Amino acid sequence: MERDALADFLVRRRDALQPADVGLTAGPRRRAPGLRREEVAQLTGMSVDYYARLEQGRSPQPSTQMLRALARTLRLSRDESDHLHRLAGHPAPERVGVSSHVRPVLLHVLDQLEDCVAFVCSDTDVVLAQNRLSLLLQGEHRGREGVEASSTYQWFTQPGAQDQILAEDRAMHSRVRVADLRATWSRRHQDPDITELVDALLAQSPEFAEIWARHEVGVKHLTTKRFNHPQVGVLQLDCETMATSEDGQRLVILGAAPGTEAHGKLRLLAVLGEQSVDA
């Protein structure tokens, strides 16, 4: 681990970003260029003390999970992310299956969607990036390893994972998830990440195994989704899914028209999130 070089790289990348680049308001009292340490720490999900020690060259070796989160926060390119891993004493991430690197411009788009729930996921439903409203509505889905990183794996194997969706809608959600995974498997069934995921689901979820046996691929995606949130109640949101590039990633946007009840509830959720941070 090259602590001094890592510290210098982090400082330079932090100084190169402006608050608007990551969806923050600059405020009137900002004097130093770039982001503050506490802003990087908050966006990455680490303590300010730990991030400060990274920049001071006196931290323990960060995990690859932490490095991926830092790469997203600092809007690093794929080459810069590889460089960050090497400075921290880890090999560059292997390019197995599809890329887990979210391009900086796409992260910028997420930050601008302030009144919508938005996230980027892979073709195995691994959530790679979330905006603030996605975190408030759906919770934190990033940071897991292996098959457990897939939200489809979580949906079929983890108790309570389906509770956020209304009970009468869950069967259709399950069919769509399995059909999407079947399409991914058809494209690249020899890749180890997809075979490991499907094998684990077949072994652990009778519901998944029963739907998988139907060989459904062309199941129509839901254009609206209903969520049951403990603070704001039921939200019916319009859903739009867009392929982002050849990397096999999808940008998912959930929103509601201004003036509707659902839009008002999203605004309320944003306010409740602010109050939680203040508290």
From TrEMBL:
Q: Which CDD domains match?
A: HTH_XRE
| Top-rank taxon, per record | Bacteria
- A Pfam family annotated for this chain is HTH_31
Q: Which GO terms describe its molecular function?
A: DNA binding
Name the chain's protein.
Transcriptional regulator
Which organism encodes this protein? Aeromicrobium chenweiae
